[in-house]
Amino acid sequence: MAIKNSQSGLSIVEVIVVVAIFAVVASTLFFNFSDxxxxxxxxxxxxxVALMVRKSQIYATxxxxxxxxTVMSDVYPAYGISFSAKNPSSAFTASSKQFVLFADTASxxxxxxxxxxxxxxxxxxxxxxxxxxxxxxxxxxxxxxCTEDGCSSTNTVNVIFRRPSPDAVICIDTGGSCTSPKSFxxxxxxxxxxxxxxxTIWNTGQISTx
Length: 210
Hints:
about 25% helix
């Protein structure tokens, strides 16, 4: 009696269909995972910006002193954060890839509500106010800064806190002293894929992310 061979396999068409389905599913998962990672990165950066603004507020209201200061107004200075959406130009300056925590020390009898830097960071003086510079890693950037006057990618804006008030003084840096404080600053953060989040600092000292 003849024995019938019952073995069978996939045809070439079936193999192609299976591979195509696998490729579609894999590419969809990869795209969604990349999107998820980008969203997480932008969200984390916005939270870091908000925390650094809060840190400067705590330094000011908690009378964080500067070691080695000899002028009383410099012993317990105002503190602030300097933001910009400009292309990076030099170390320890605000840009689209960096923001700076600084001590607004006195120059004479008053502070100028500006961030003054002489090329180093960590030991603030009246001409070199950098406390910490925070570089933005990855592809995320600060894309624009918005106030009630509109949004700009070329302005540098400083947010300053002075004891004993938790209120913020928000100043566009025009090269001179701050003469027209703004009511709020929105720092817009953008990923390479176009996702955006923002951190808004109000002159009342409130900080929010969205």
